[in-house]
Design a protein that fits this description.
Elements: H1 7-26, H2 29-46, H3 54-72, H4 93-107, H5 110-121, H6 126-133, H7 137-153
Helix pairs in contact: 1-2, 1-3, 2-3, 3-6, 5-7, 6-7
């Protein structure tokens, strides 16, 4: 089959950003690569029908595919005899904070985590997030508010994200 015009350039230009989004959603490098590959395959099949900027279309595919995978996966506990040791954590405070934030993000409901990833890690506007998710701007605002409230009250931060926390993160997952 012939490669659609502009597809290779698109993939080369946006793959790192798409992979980062997929990784933040899945929290696993292998699953993120699979998610991006699946999304790009779907985009390739529909490439001739895509009008305008294809990146929001492909991001929508990523979010929808992630949601489908999440619904199909079993979410039960996986018992183990031995608990993993907490060794090897770097002594830098920023890394420790990022690790804690990463864990808390993993406890958020899928839609809240998706909204935070797109808003603060991908630096999208509320309108852009609403377009990618296919929801209203009000839904994006309410999901963001609920997610940030949960972060503020999470005991693993020991009140560290108290009242002054406005939900602003730098690209490393550290709040500012």
């Amino acid at each position: 089959m012939e490669v659609p015009e502009g597809f290779e350039e698109f993939v080369a230009g946006v793959s790192p950003r798409l992979l980062r989004t997929a990784y933040l959603l899945t929290r696993d490098a292998g699953h993120a690569e699979d998610l991006v590959q699946a999304a790009l395959t779907k985009a390739w099949l529909a490439w001739r029908r895509v009008k305008g900027d294809p990146e929001p279309y492909v991001r929508r595919i990523i979010v929808n595919t992630y949601a489908t995978w999440w619904r199909r996966r079993w979410h039960g506990e996986e018992p183990t005899d031995v608990l993993p040791e907490r060794v090897g954590l770097p002594p830098q405070a920023a890394v420790d904070e990022r690790v804690r934030l990463w864990r808390v993000l993993g406890t958020l409901p899928r839609r809240q985590r998706t909204v935070l990833v797109l808003r603060f890690y991908e630096d999208m506007t509320e309108a852009q997030v609403a377009q990618v998710l296919g929801v209203s701007v009000g839904t994006v605002k309410s999901q963001t508010s609920k997610a940030l409230a949960r972060l503020r009250t999470d005991p693993s931060f020991g009140g560290e994200f108290g009242e002054g926390f406005d939900g602003q993160f730098d690209g490393t997952g550290v709040h500012r």
